Queue: 2 jobs
Job 1
Amino acid sequence: MYNYLISSDDTEALNNKIEEIYKSFNLEFDVTRYDLEEDNIYNIIDELSTISLFDNPKFVIAKALNKLALASERQINELLMVMNNKDSNNVLVLTCLDKIDFKNDNLAKVRKYSVYFDVRIKNIPLDTYAHDYLLKNGYTIDSQALSELVKYSVNLATLRNNLDILICFKDENKKIEEKDVSKMIKQPLEDNIFQLIDMVLAKNKKAVFKMYNDFRIENIPPSYIISMLINKFQEMYDVYHLARSGADQQSIMDLYNVSSGKAYYMLKNSKAASLDEIKNNLNELMDLDYKIKSGKVDQYLGLELYLLR
């Protein structure tokens, strides 16, 4: 019997790890899936204890493994007996989109008989993943296009979706360039907010209102834009002080649980403005947010006046 525990902060990264484990055996399995939020632990025990109809080994995937923390001593002991069956070629993969609390006695026991993987999105180099994924499918991508693609992909699931869009779009010549990424991949709202902040700080009102009109076309409420601006200016304020205290890119990655590229831009943006500019904008936006929520200012007019100031 082969047992694995996987914790992750990203569904796509988790699924990729499961696929990697599956392929490593080079066997034909009967695959079954369970959810410990809904299924009883005995469903898994019975599945692993019974012989497959076609005598194939079983590949059993069960999510929400942290629910095992609430299992009775008898249930855990029966599960461990199955997991410790050295004559079985079955595979059990227990997963969760969270950290695993191994201080819990049940989970500590299960780990003792398992191989454990903690798959964090910040530890996955998205540029390498994208390059290899495209190469595997017979495509090439230039360095500028790859940089833009990664910047527009906030997590592995988004990256995979964006890659599939580009693969379909470039089916004929299979060479992806920066113009293809710009044409086909929608820039995340968070990146647009960062650009809006850059334009606000540069007092480039023409660019500011072009972006604002784009938001209007996409029906994004001004109150949501204001909330995003507050969050980003607060982030700039915090990172500004962290950088002054000696925090580097790795420290920002660990503290905010972000990728290396995101940490780089967070540090870069925090140094692009003075502390007074950051504080003034943050205070104005928080005051505006209060006035909108209390009904003193219309959200459209309030945002436009802030952008015009």
Note: The chain has three domains: 2-119, 123-184, 189-308.
Job 2
Amino acid sequence: MGIHHTHSHAPPRGSSRVLLAAVGITAGYALVEAIGGWLSGSLALLADAGHMVSDAMALGLAAGAAIVAQRPATTSHTFGLGRVEVVAATFNAFFLLGVVAAVAWAAIGRLQNPVPVSGGTVLLIASAGLVINVVVAWMLSRGVQSLNVRAAFLHVLGDLLGSVAALVSGAVILLTGWTPIDPLLSLFICALIVVSCIRLLREALHVVMEAVPRDLELEEVGRAMAAVDGVREVHDLHIWQVASGSVMLTAHLIIDSYRDWDRTHLAVREVLERNFDITHVTLQPEALTK
């Protein structure tokens, strides 16, 4: 007897191409920002350059994960490799927290021992960096919104905020000469990124723990199934995600008779797809009469 696997659990295609393009743009500008930060003495600019290097690595990892996630299911991985994107998102979030810790440590040192900063150079390079980050963020926001892509977007958003911080820092220093603004803005951006990372990690853990997707209510789904003509009761209902956008459902249905099972089965599947966008469904009938 042959075994056939006809369901695809891989995330939608398209995210890998966007991520690879973002890698090239981000890595190229990171070099420009690093040189500018070194020449100007700006911690905000150097921090943003380091952040962009980490982003290029993170985007590369995300692109690789998106490609691997498209591989078909096998006899050893029957749900496919879609969850590799969740793993990549988790790694990227922890990696970004490490970068934030390094930047915060350097910023505290700068507050204790201020150094001269060339406001004009910072302003010029940060302006260009802001444009680059807006373009990359726009590319990612229009792509497939998997956890993996959202983690990559979070990195780029951190860069965008870093560019804004460097821009404000350069303007303040140029106009007033007050250099503490540079590390202070760096610390503010670090705090924002930490909050976003924690939220992302919570969502990744939610998927790994096979919890019910946050946009679904188990009881509501069960009531909708039980309301289908021919269904007496729904029990052993389980809903979980293999990866972002890949929702699974299994349940036992008590029905009147096996004679009408084909019709009932089809009706329940239609309700699940129409009302909850759940298409991978496994139902076990239990008839009151033969």
Note: Residues 258 and 287 are 6 Å apart (CA to CA).
